[in-house]
Predict the 3D structure of the following.
Amino acid sequence: MSEHSHEELLARVSSDYYLENRSKVEIAVSHDISRFQVARLLTEARERGIVEIKVHYPAHISAAEIRQLESWLGIREVIVADSTSGDEGQARGILAKAAAAEISRQAPAGGTLGISWSRILDVASMLVRDLPRCDIVQLAGALPTEGESNPLELIQRLGHLSGGLTWPLWSPLVVEDPTTAAGLRRQPEIAGALAKADSLDLAIVAIGAWKSGGSTVWERAEAEVREAAVEAGAVAECSGRLLNAAGAAVESGLDEQIIAVTVKQLQRTEKVIAVSHGRARADAVRAVAKAGFVTTLIVDIPLARALADLMDQENSQ
């Protein structure tokens, strides 16, 4: 490959990733290379100056602005983590620290705590140091990702701290065949864990946007299924469950493939901590807030600013 062709490849891959918000897996498929090659090309593009990244740190969110967001969203408590770092890993760690503090503070002594999986919640589970005795329920099946631990390890970690019973979901989150998924839900261990989600005292979940780069579930769904969900109005994803802009559950083919807590179960839960980050998830967070089950929302500053912008737009209409 000539130098000119290689530089063009660096530019195309970088454009796909940074401007089109495509995942490394999608880029790898379209260019017939591995995702590891994609990662190396992105690093090289930055080193050679083909990609320049500028980070404009936002101003801090005032207490008055947070109270306005709480009122507008209808959420009891909004926590804005001071994640002004330009490094995504560091920002995620700051959110995880805030989530870990809330898990410790709100964990129900003698009750039942349910938790889904996300990269932030995975890190948060490692940062939790103390829990009262309580049962721990896995709210979503496993979603294999590169470099992180899995939901079963998360559940075991918290169960060891709490000393209570654990209710793992021995299943993937997204099952390719709906018939297989239905069979898994009938398995006693899985059925028991899903039923336990009917009587949670506290749930911890993550909020994703239903679009490429906005949810780890998006890449696991078949193209027809995810596009059909978009056409049906899906804008948000929470534990594999989709919601529209009004906060209503979106019925789609994905529901038949998901092994996870339902929106109705979360709506019956007394306390729900939700974590999300990044400006691109503002519409998704607004949608989940309208579903009415989140009592504590933990976000980073860019997302808080984006939510404030949405609030101002709605109020000016």
